[in-house]
Amino acid sequence: xxxxxxxxxxxxxxxxxxxxxxxxxxxxxxxxxxxxxxxxxxxxxxxxxxxxxxxxxxxxxxxxxxxxxxxxxxxxxxxxxxxxxxxxxxxxxxxxxxxxxxxxxxxxxxxxxxxxxxxxxxxxxxxxxxxxxxxxxxxxxxxxxxxxxxxxxxxxxxxxxxxxxxxxxxxxxxxxxxxxxxxxxxxxxxxxxxxxxxxxxxxxxxxxxxxxxxxxxxxxxxxxxxxxxxxxxxxxxxxxxxxxxxxxxxxxxxxxxxxxxxxxxxxxxxxxxxxxxxxxxxxxxxxxxxxxx
Length: 293
Ligand SMILES: Nc1ncnc2c1ncn2[C@@H]1O[C@H](COP(=O)(O)OP(=O)(O)O)[C@@H](O)[C@H]1O
Ligand SMILES: [Mg+2]
What we know:
With 293 residues, the protein is an alpha/beta fold.
């Protein structure tokens, strides 16, 4: 309980210092979030539902460079949010703030109504296990087999037995079509296969939210399709909550419940994929979409 109280005080202190309003009351935030998002997402809202991720007035600077400016975003249970935007717009920084890899300069991030932005080092580890991340560069351990890469976090972070972790690893490797490659090490796998191992590893942790940072950008074109197929299957059939930064417009159009367009550290526009792609409201969105066709 002490930890929680210290955390709240810490958050209030920082909020007061930066002149940021304290986080909203959870029920009020859920109600306002629903009113805001109900026409912007294909998500099927439950009565009184609270978002899984709630970002309020998020700001992040590196030195004098302000990278995120007053970002406000909810992600709902099972929702697939695709984030688009030019390079340097702050997409990775936003994901890294959600995943506690960066400390926000100010603002609030809640996971299931629990403030994570003021988290002390001790509960960072606990909070981070709720957040899965798939990186552009896979970030697998090169000296471990595909199976071991999926096993290790389950044992170390979740405290599972080797037997349980191996069962789960084989299950998730089968889902991504790599059961036969379980004993191969990353250098013996194609980039697409490595990324599918990384997805299996993230899913095996059963996070509350799975974050993807340009998961296909480092792949040869012919390998992109297989990774997108795995992500599509995950999005449509697993009920997983996903935030996906990608330039794959076909994926965004087909799979997203909501598309968010960021530029210059600001959420410029968000909405249903057909609205954002076919009838963008903002000139900057139109220009960006024109530039990548
Ligand atoms: N650790 C860092 N130190 C300084 N500047 C950074 C750091 N990380 C990101 N930036 C800057 O923040 C801006 C946004 O970067 P990023 O979030 O990676 O954008 P995106 O993922 O949309 O391409 C860029 O101008 C980048 O140079
Ligand atoms: Mg990036």
